[in-house]
Write a structure and sequence with these properties.
There is one protein chain. This protein is α+β, with helices and mostly antiparallel strands. Helix content is 40%, strand content 17%. The longest helix has 11 residues. It is globular, with a radius of gyration of 14 Å. Bound molecules: adenosine-3',5'-cyclic-monophosphate (CMP). The site of adenosine-3',5'-cyclic-monophosphate has 9 residues, from β4.
Length: 139
């Protein structure tokens, strides 16, 4: 059964470009409620843990270096059908394939520097949210 929460990060490229506010505004206008928000910075080690599921992929080391290259904004979001609706809002992983009007189409630079993360399942949304936030840090 679909849950009503998902997890996102504004990635280092989008944060460095000053697009965090515009991205969060798009997310809120699409009907998502902010449940937890944190401005933070991953280390190569913590990025490696977050993306451990990709550890065998050829892009893993570059991904960990990139995700620890600058601040990120971690966010838990709530909306009915949150995981699927959020993936529609952000568009395809590769911005070259992202639909017009999606967050990645507007803000992403490349398949790696793709502006935002979005959980791919309810199970991973719960795991990823717990990676950054304790229960006390959520409304
Ligand atoms: P994200 O949704 O955060 O999950 C894994 C990330 O790996 C993905 O976004 C991309 O930023 C990054 N990545 C880099 N290269 C690739 C690739 N070739 N295929 C898929 N993801 C990639």
């Amino acid at each position: 059964m679909a849950t009503n929460r998902t997890f996102t990060m504004v990635k280092p490229d989008a944060f460095a470009d000053g697009n965090s506010g515009a991205i969060l505004s798009m997310i809120e206008k699409a009907g998502f409620k902010l449940i937890a928000v944190k401005l933070t910075k991953l280390t190569a080690e913590t990025a490696g843990k977050f993306y451990a599921v990709h550890s065998e992929r050829p892009f893993y080391n570059d991904l960990c270096a990139y995700m620890s290259s600058g601040p990120i904004v971690a966010v838990i979001l709530e909306k009915e059908n949150a995981v699927a609706d959020f993936r529609t809002l952000i568009g395809a992983t590769n911005p070259a394939n992202a639909a017009e009007g999606t967050i990645r189409k507007i803000f992403a630079k490349s398949i790696e520097a793709n502006a935002v993360h979005g959980s791919d399942s309810d199970e991973n949304a719960a795991i990823e949210g717990a990676f950054f936030f304790s229960e006390l840090e959520r409304i």
